[in-house]
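Pipeline run #58 for the internal structure catalog. This entry was flagged by the ingest filter as a single-chain record with no existing model, so it goes straight to prediction. Upstream metadata was stripped on purpose; only the residue string is passed forward. Reviewer on rotation: M.T. Logging verbosity set to normal.
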Amino acid sequence: MARGETDLHEMIRESVRGIASDFDKTYWREHIEEEEFPEEYWQALADDGWLGVTIPEEYGGEGLGMLEMSIIIEELSRGGGQGGIIFVLTPVFGGIGIQRHGTAEQKEAYLPKIADGEMKFCMALTEPAAGTNTLNIQTFADREGDEFVVNGQKTFISGVENADAMLLVSRTSEFDESNPTGGVTLFLVDDPVERDGISLSELDTAVPWFEKQYQIQFDDLRVSEEDILGTEDGGLYLLWDTLNTERLAGAASALGGGLRAIDLAVDYANDRNVFGQPIGAHQAIQHPIAESYAKLMAAREILYKGANKWDDDEDCGLEANVAKLLASRAGTEAADRAIQAHGGNGFTHEYEVYDIWQNLRLTQTAPVSNEMVLNYIGEHELGMPRSY
């Protein structure tokens, strides 16, 4: 067990490893090639209670914290298929967002369905002209009585085709330089695929995954004031609160994926014999793998520290950003070195490591670029001038 872990954490690891082992690389390859959501995997996680890990027991969850969720995501990604990343949209943006900021009615309506696997979420935030500048989003919801009429466009939105609900980020007031973080509202939009006023255009992306990416057009989408998560015009503060958990979850996924690459590299280096001995006996193979493992262990420490601080209601902005930065870099490097250790076999689906690299390389850009993470550290932690 890692330092500070309890018997509960070891039980969680063993349970999650057992689930991951039931879904081999053939299962994941088939679902990725067919772009089909892994329903059996999802339901297995729900049946063991892990989709509701942070949801309070009164709503059918386990009532645990971000540390436990991080461990689950890490182990799922280490178990293969990068399966841990599917936690981000529903248990994080859906579950944590609603349990922290939802009304009693919203909690009752959504949280039990998230915990039992009945409900999946997508999140509509990124826009073509705004990029990482969320303050510059143009999607606008005009109030008409107790309703809002939404118009605008989003891009690179994951998993809409499988979503039962969407967390929509929209302006409800014009940008005001005197209050730059105001004017943004979060809406819970049920059945986004079937709603009038929402049209989807699939984007052609190269990363192998079972969910598709979409551009979304909102044309007079009607939502109710009862669909607001939190307060009107106060959505950015809620969003930033949830983004720390997204970065911790993303770091856990990158950590697990990197450890998966290390596991595969070690197995291959121990089994592959050239010139009369395993290739792992050569320092040119052994040292890069060992160095990447060391970097992943360091990333794990800052990840767990951030998760513990979040659970204790302490500011974890530095730790969440540093964990995301280090885990994404170390994970991608570990996969790259695993490919090199495999030689030509590293570029085949059979040996998996190239697929891992493709998914981990994405983590340096999404859900936030490492450059923006460094901007945050430079400005907010080191007191340097704003650089963008």
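catalog note: The CA atoms of residues 185 and 231 lie 7 Å apart.
catalog note: The chain has a mean pLDDT of 95.
status: ready for reviewer M.T.
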